[in-house]
């Protein structure tokens, strides 16, 4: 299919993003100035800045999936995770910095779901960047009031025998949901289990992939 | 332990969501001490304050009509937002 720039749509039907030809904003200038001073003073370097951006971009829900699959297969690890999720994540080699993490265990009676009503707090070190809907007011304002309606919109319909616990990350903690291990996965290896763990199941708006 | 969140509306950077102010909940766990974000946000020397996780019933927050009586909301609340009776 030929490139169709005439109607400004890509082959997937989306508009091309416009070049940013406007002057820099106040804060963009500020960021560049501070960065240049820090580099001049040898406090950081261009390569360090780019390495950090690279590291941030490379974080993905695959990290969280490793934590979940390990907890599914190792009862002692699961205990440590529920007791101190920050330390248990470090144990698997994830650099989570000063992040204070709490793992929330789903059971047959309890389903956990995470939100940040005040802004968009998210366990980025384990799940990567938050999805757009997580940051939008529609999700943030409604999940604390109509969790069942909102989860239904995500395709998750829960029986009233299951209590929903909504967790609002209002301050210093970050949360990851430990979903229920899918049934009939006894013979699965840790790697096969990791592949079942979705991002949404660790936020609580979904379940692991069905087998 | 049951606690009531202060029903105050001060200006500035506050991390107690307004939908929980004036509501009664149950302390779920003690999280330890953290720098007060209300001072930290303005680069002021920030005191260490205690942080709790408090669990609220949906009906306490939103009144009678809720989707399911056993559903709850947990939030982190600093000690100075908890009313002492």
CATH architecture of chain B: Roll
Low-confidence stretches of chain A: none
Q: Report how far apart the termini of chain B are.
A: 12 Å
Largest sheet of chain A: 2 strands, parallel
Largest interface: A-B, 21 and 24 residues
CATH architecture of the largest domain in chain A: Alpha-Beta Complex
In whole angstroms, the N-to-C terminal distance of chain A is 37 Å
Class based on secondary structure composition and strand pairing of chain B: mainly beta
- The rough form of chain A would be described as globular
Counting structural domains of chain A, the number is 2
Element-by-element helix/strand order of chain B:
EEHEHEE
Mean pLDDT of chain A: 93
- The total domain count of chain B is 1
Question: Describe it for me?
Answer:
The complex is a heterodimer of chains A (211) and B (85). With 211 residues, chain A is an alpha/beta fold. Chain A folds into 2 domains: 1-58, no CATH class; 60-203, Nitrile hydratase alpha /Thiocyanate hydrolase gamma (Nitrile Hydratase, Chain A, Alpha-Beta Complex). Chain A contains 11 helices and 4 strands; from the N terminus they run αααααββααααββαα. In chain A, the strands form 2 sheets. Chain A has a two-stranded parallel sheet with strand order 1-4. A two-stranded parallel sheet of chain A has the order 2-3. The model of chain A has no long low-confidence stretch (mean pLDDT 93). Chain B is built from 2 helices and 5 strands; from the N terminus they run ββαβαββ. Chain B is mainly β. Chain B has a single domain (2-83), classed as SH3 type barrels (Roll), CATH 2.30.30. Chain B has helices at residues 37-40, 58-62; strands spanning 2-5, 24-35, 48-57, 72-78, 82-83. Classes of the chains: A alpha/beta (211), B mainly beta (85). At the A-B interface, α9 and β3 of A face β3, α2 and β4 of B.
Write the layout of secondary structure elements.
The complex is a heterodimer of chains A (211) and B (85).
Chain A: H1 26-40, H2 46-58, H3 61-73, H4 75-83, H5 85-91, E1 100-105, E2 110-115, H6 124-127, H7 132-135, H8 137-142, H9 147-153, E3 163-168, E4 173-178, H10 190-194, H11 199-203
Parallel strand pairs in A: 1-4, 2-3
Chain B: E1 2-5, E2 24-35, H1 37-40, E3 48-57, H2 58-62, E4 72-78, E5 82-83
Antiparallel strand pairs in B: 1-2, 1-5, 2-3, 3-4
């Amino acid at each position: 299919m030929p490139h169709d720039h005439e109607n400004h749509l890509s082959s997937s039907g989306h508009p091309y993003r416009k070049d940013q030809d406007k002057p820099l904003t106040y804060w963009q200038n500020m960021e560049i100035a501070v960065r240049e001073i820090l580099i001049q003073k040898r406090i950081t370097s261009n390569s360090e800045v780019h390495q950090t951006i690279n590291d941030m971009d490379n974080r993905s829900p695959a990290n969280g999936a490793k934590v979940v699959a390990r907890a599914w297969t190792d009862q002692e690890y699961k205990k440590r995770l529920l007791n101190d999720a920050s330390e248990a994540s470090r144990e698997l080699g994830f650099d989570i910095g000063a992040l204070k993490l709490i793992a929330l265990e789903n059971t047959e009676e309890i389903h956990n779901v995470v939100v940040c009503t005040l802004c968009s707090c998210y366990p980025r070190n384990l799940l990567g960047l938050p999805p757009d809907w997580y940051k939008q007011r529609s999700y943030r304002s409604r999940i604390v009031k109509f969790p069942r309606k909102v989860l239904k919109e995500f395709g998750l319909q829960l029986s009233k025998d299951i209590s929903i616990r909504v967790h609002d990350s209002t301050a210093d903690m970050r949360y990851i949901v430990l979903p229920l291990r899918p049934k009939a996965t006894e013979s699965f290896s840790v790697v096969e289990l990791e592949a079942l763990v979705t991002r949404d199941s660790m936020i609580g708006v979904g379940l692991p992939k069905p087998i | 332990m049951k606690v009531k969140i202060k029903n105050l509306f001060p200006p500035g950077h506050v991390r107690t969501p307004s939908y929980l102010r004036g509501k009664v909940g149950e302390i779920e766990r003690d999280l330890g001490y953290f720098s007060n974000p209300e001072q930290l946000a303005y680069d002021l020397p920030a005191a260490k304050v205690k942080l709790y996780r408090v669990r609220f019933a949906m009906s306490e927050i939103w009144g009678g009509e809720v989707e399911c009586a056993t559903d709850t909301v947990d939030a982190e609340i600093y000690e100075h937002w908890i009313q002492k009776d």
